[in-house]
Specification:
Length: 177
């Protein structure tokens, strides 16, 4: 049986969800028996593949680049998993929403800069006016709550998704493995 194709994606998040995923430790070997990781910050693929079975998405949608990425991810993924509270609710990145992007850029690149105070016009993608969760842009199939979701939550969810078994994470802790 061919392995399922797994992608993990990092939008506007702190990478803590990916760190928790790596906390699977030796269980990563068991997961690797079941899936091929075809796109992720931890592999060297530059383009999101055309056909992905399971996409784990960390972070909220905060920029025009994030919005393009999540549309592409949805179009090419059978199962899209919102991974962690930033993807599910906006969480920490959405704390900027009351202030607007101009004030945030001013604070980061002018007021808090000790040299070369200037707001970048290239490389940094245009920020959306408000940060919003993934499900406000595309259909989400599975929500994995937690900040971050625990390694046990990842393991339970991934094994259920890959084997087609029942997905019941209600008994798992939200914090820590
Ligand atoms: Fe970081 Fe928590 Fe957001 Fe995950 S849910 S990206 S750990 S702030």
């Amino acid at each position: 049986m061919s392995k399922l194709k797994l992608a993990t994606v990092w939008l506007d998040g702190c990478s803590g969800c990916h760190m928790s995923f790596l906390d699977l430790d030796e269980r990563l070997l068991a997961i690797a028996e079941l899936v091929d990781v075809v796109y992720s910050p931890i592999v060297d693929a530059k383009e999101f593949p055309d056909e992905v079975d399971i996409a784990l998405v960390e972070g909220a949608v905060a920029s025009v680049d994030d919005e393009k990425k999540i549309q592409k991810i949805r179009a090419h993924s059978k199962t899209l998993v919102a991974m962690g509270d930033c993807a599910i609710t906006g969480n920490v990145p959405s704390m900027r929403n009351p202030f607007g992007p101009e004030a945030i850029l001013e604070r980061a690149y002018i007021q808090n800069a000790s040299a070369q105070q200037q707001i970048p016009s290239v490389i940094v993608p245009k920020l959306l006016r408000v940060v919003r969760p993934v499900h406000e842009f595309v259909k989400v199939d599975v929500f994995l709550p937690g900040c971050p979701p625990s390694a046990d939550t990842f393991y339970a969810a991934l094994t259920a998704l890959v084997t087609g078994g029942p997905l019941d994470i209600s008994a798992l802790t939200r914090f820590g493995a």
